[in-house]
Design brief:
The structure is a single chain. The mean pLDDT is 92. The chain folds into 3 domains: 86 residues, MurE/MurF, N-terminal domain (Udp-n-acetylmuramoylalanyl-d-glutamate--2,6- Diaminopimelate Ligase, Chain: A, domain 1, 3-Layer(aba) Sandwich), CATH 3.40.1390; 211 residues, Hexapeptide repeat proteins (UDP N-Acetylglucosamine Acyltransferase, domain 1, 3 Solenoid); 32 residues. The protein is of the alpha/beta class. A 12-stranded mixed sheet has the order 8-11-14-17-20-25-28-30-33-36-38-39. It has a 10-stranded parallel sheet with strand order 9-12-15-18-21-26-29-31-34-37, with no helix packed on it. It is built from 5 helices and 39 strands.
Length: 364
């Protein structure tokens, strides 16, 4: 679909510098853009590349000027990018209706405007809302609830009683509602603790590929409104995230840990069980968290600590090799001094016993 520069500026609340009537045919990164296409630049380096590109117009959020390109000034170039791309490349809409290979229980309630793809299985007493799409090879177990405008991609499995709000997206290979990892020991054997809870996913959540979210042992595991979960994440039983959290790839959250709102867990973060993480907390990549974290704090490291404290330790650690070299030089000087004193007349009397020499510390 074609838009003019002015159309895009009006949509974004931006200001045009140049020809507002110029037609635009697409959106691309600067190094791939062709004549007639739009690109964006959020810093000087990107802007210089965009100016040298074939793109006809550039979205910017800095006071850049150009004699070669039409500019659209906006408050945030990256936010504008996210809003503009779907205009030129809308997500394909699947046909409405039910594929002949789908198996749907007579007691299930599927809205007429939903789309049920090939080889989907929908079990008894499940409800699926308007305009929701099950793309294919999905298994939806008994008594699940799927809201409106949801997208469930291929090979997703929903265990019994999973509840989803509206506009939820779940990517391929994800499993929601499997048994939590709960056992007790009896006479050297692991006895399984029944997991009879469920999973509740609130509105506007997106869950990546190959994520596993376990159902609660008794109550629910809860994913808060607007939370975004990356690929390959493990969320254990009875975890609850607040609203608008970000959980990045390969992170793991152990059972019964509670996250506040707007929490960010970077890649490969691990949270121990039964923790409380406050609102607006950020935890850096590969951190291992063993303690509760208060609101607004930033932690990293293994074991994780407040960022300022951990930075001081890392800086001290970088200085350790030089400190060891200095220590060894001082030790050699001290030994030499003691030996020199020992060779002086009368030193044998003064030093009846030779002092012990500490073992040398090797510096890396």
């Amino acid at each position: 679909m074609r838009y003019s520069v002015g159309d895009i500026a009006a949509l974004l609340g931006g200001t045009v510098i140049g020809d507002a009537t110029m037609p635009l045919t697409g959106f691309q990164a600067a190094d791939r853009a062709r004549a007639g296409e739009l690109t964006f630049a959020e810093n000087k380096t990107f802007f210089e590349r965009a100016e040298q590109s074939a793109a006809s117009a550039i979205i910017v959020d800095k006071p850049f000027v150009s004699e070669r390109k039409v500019l659209i000034h906006v408050p945030s170039a990256r936010t504008a990018f996210a809003r503009v791309v779907p205009l030129f490349y809308p997500e394909p809409q699947p046909p409405r209706g039910v594929h002949p290979s789908a198996i749907i229980s007579p007691s299930a309630k599927v809205h007429p405007d939903a789309c049920i793809g090939a080889h989907v299985i929908i079990s008894a007493h499940t409800q699926i809302g308007a305009r929701s799409v099950l793309h294919g090879n999905n298994y939806v177990d008994e008594s699940c609830v799927i809201g409106e405008d949801c997208s469930i991609f291929h090979n997703v499995t929903l265990y019994p009683r999973t509840e989803m709000g509206n506009r939820v997206r779940i990517h391929a290979g994800t499993v929601v509602g499997s048994d939590g990892f709960g056992y007790v020991q009896e006479e050297g054997r692991h006895i399984k603790v029944p997991q009879i809870g469920n999973v509740i996913i609130h509105d506007d959540v997106e869950i990546g590929a190959n994520v596993t979210i376990d159902r609660g042992a008794l109550g629910p595991t809860i994913i808060g409104k607007g939370t975004k979960i990356d690929n390959l994440v493990q969320i254990a039983h009875n975890v609850a995230t607040g609203d608008h959290c970000l959980v990045v790839a390969q992170a793991g959250i152990a059972g019964s840990t509670k996250l506040g709102h707007h929490v960010i867990l970077a890649g490969q973060v691990g949270l121990a069980g039964h923790l409380r993480i406050g609102n607006n907390v950020t935890i850096a990549a590969q951190s291992g968290v063993m303690h509760n974290i208060e609101e607004g704090e930033k932690w990293f490291g293994t074991p994780a600590q407040p960022d300022k404290q951990m930075k001081r330790q890392l800086l001290a650690l970088q200085k350790l090799p030089e400190l060891l070299r200095r220590f060894n030089r001082m030790e050699k000087a001290l030994i030499g001094r003691l030996q020199l004193d020992g060779d002086k007349p009368g030193a044998r009397t003064a030093h009846a016993a030779k002092p012990a020499v500490p073992a040398k510390i090797e510096a890396s």
